[in-house]
Design goal:
The protein is α/β, with parallel strands linked by helices. Helices cover 33% and strands 15% of the residues. Strands 4-5-7-10-8-11-12-13-14-16-17 form an eleven-stranded mixed sheet, sandwiched between helices. A hairpin with a 2-residue loop joins strand 4 (58-60) and strand 5.
Length: 537
């Protein structure tokens, strides 16, 4: 099942991170040089001392922001494919007014990703703080955001949560972590270098290093290290699910938010499988040793990784067993979780397969394609007559199979070890997110994968073109998420509280489409009896 999901997700990620025509490599951004210590004035609110040195952020209309702060030593040279190490201290005041480098990844149609990144010096984070609190005010709850991108793309800067931080009164941290082969390569040689004997979890360990940085430093930014919520969407949500299951992450957070991240039932690769694929990857690079692999350029590594799946590896102290099994056995006991998915997750996947290429699925081909991809039973569950077009009919099946039903199954697992609050983002009226808007298509994406992000944050730093009632829904969603991060039940003014029991889901919609309502039929709507039976095989 995990392998089938990985193949389907690879197609979705290919859509969201579609390679552009070859371009020349982007030169590495020079390291930020320290400015003289005397530049810092006593009581300056944009200069903060971290455990490695002082940083100078900037004041914005929303509060204060500190960008591109290194939380670990750059994983370059001999540190490539090693566990993250504490960042070296610096003298003076380090500028924190610009984002750091994106980790190694291909170009895509996402705004700001027109060229690939071959830069391995990328382990930075960004801190967003509301306007300075009065002296003696209580420390603020903290949300740490892990970006999406299929564990092969993206960066912390993909969301700018400064307005969210102001509206919710929280401190928000966004994180870069190693991706693709750089973050998840496992080989027998690397096994001998890592502390638990199981390589392939470098990206997850980066996330934990960032959380340790938060624990040590966030109090200086006005945050409460004892009230940290980890959150993420898609691969970021999957990362949250994995960190909930990781013994080495225990105590680094008090709550988790999983947005469209339960795909593959939060699955992970076995050590045997990961090492076998690592050997094939090394062979593709013409390498028989770790030294050879470290000698290959980032561009070579990036070119070789495309045909492989990348993700967490079980068997060591970081992830002893698959996340679903760990959570079923009580991992992260008592940690509250907000979990959900979008109503039309599969529409971007279907668009990329058919309409993007100028070959919309036809009514004549629909039965054959459905049988080939999902079987006869699925064809009867998704009759063409029930959908506006063959492509949208097809889209419902992978959306249900990969996201909606795994999210509901995860609710049941999570309920056995702590509070779980379930939602479904169901606003079909909103504009497609920025990457899809760039395509200038009239395809009906509905409540597709990623589309809820623009209701919470500035996606790719852009204000979303929401209309008046969509802005109302966005404000309500920020209230739901914010109240949860601050430590309570997810609530919004004048709206039903998000349910804390399996089987009941809060459906998030604009007022003209029925508003936010509690539903017990989401599983039926997504044909989950069919997909749950398949997952259990």
């Amino acid at each position: 099942m995990i392998r089938r999901v990985a193949v389907a997700l690879a197609a979705l990620v290919t859509t969201l991170v579609a390679p552009l025509p070859a371009v020349s490599a982007v030169p590495a951004v020079p390291a930020v040089s320290a400015v003289p210590a005397q530049a810092a004035q006593p009581g300056d609110p944009v200069v903060v001392r971290t455990d490695a040195g002082r940083v100078r952020g900037e004041t914005t209309a929303e509060g204060r922001q500190f960008l591109g702060i290194p939380y670990a030593e750059p994983p370059v040279g001999e540190l490539r494919w090693r566990e993250p190490r504490p960042v070296s201290p610096w003298r003076g005041v380090r500028g924190a007014g610009d984002f750091g480098n994106k980790c190694v990844q291909s170009a895509s149609w996402d705004p700001g990703y027109e060229q690939p990144s071959h830069t391995e010096d990328c382990l930075d984070l960004n801190v967003y703080v509301p306007a300075q609190s009065p002296e003696g005010a209580a420390r603020r709850a903290v949300m740490v955001w892990f970006h999406g991108g299929g564990l092969t793309a993206g960066a912390g800067q993909d969301v700018v949560p400064d307005t969210f931080a102001r509206q919710t009164g929280t401190v928000v941290v966004t994180v870069n972590y190693r991706l693709g082969a750089m973050g998840f390569l496992a080989t027998a040689g690397l096994d001998g270098e890592v502390s638990d004997g199981v390589s392939g979890n470098f990206g997850l360990l980066d996330q934990q290093a960032a959380l340790r940085w938060v624990r040590a430093n966030i109090g200086r930014f006005g945050g409460d290290p004892g009230r940290v919520t980890i959150a993420g969407e898609s691969a970021g949500g999957r990362s949250v699910c994995t960190q909930l299951a990781s013994p080495t992450a225990r105590g680094l957070f008090r709550a988790g938010i999983i947005q469209s991240g339960a795909y593959g039932d939060c699955g992970a690769r076995t050590h045997e499988e990961a090492v076998a694929r690592g050997a094939a990857f090394a062979q593709k690079l013409g390498c028989a040793s770790v030294a050879c692999l470290r000698g290959r350029s980032a561009a070579d590594v990036l070119a070789a990784q495309a045909q492989f799946d990348w993700g967490p590896v079980t068997g060591g102290s970081t992830l002893p067993v698959p996340p679903e099994q760990a959570l079923a056995q009580g991992a992260a006991a008592g940690v509250p979780v907000l979990n959900g998915a979008n109503k039309d997750e599969g529409r971007t996947l279907a668009f990329s397969r058919f309409d993007l290429n100028g070959t919309p699925l036809t009514a004549e081909r629909y039965p054959t394609v459905m049988r080939e991809d999902f079987g006869e039973a699925a064809l009867s569950r998704y009759p063409l007559s029930a959908y506006p077009s063959p492509t949208l009919a097809y889209a419902a099946a992978p959306g249900d199979r990969l996201f909606a039903c795994p999210a509901l199954r995860l609710d049941d697992v999570l309920a056995g070890r702590g509070p779980v609050y379930a939602y479904e983002f169901a606003d079909r009226t909103g504009p497609p997110f920025a990457s899809l808007r760039n395509l200038n298509t009239d395809f009906d994406f509905g409540a597709t994968h990623v589309n809820e992000v623009q209701y919470l944050f500035k996606h790719f730093g852009l204000d979303s073109p929401l209309n008046a009632e969509q802005r109302v829904l966005a404000r309500q969603m920020v209230q739901y998420w914010g109240s949860f991060v601050r430590g309570g039940t997810p609530r919004a003014e004048g709206q039903p509280a998000m349910p804390g029991r399996p089987g009941t889901v809060l459906s998030l919609r604009t007022a003209s489409k029925g508003g936010n309502v509690l539903s017990r039929t989401v599983g039926q709507e997504h044909q989950c009896d069919l997909w749950d039976a398949e997952a259990s095989q």
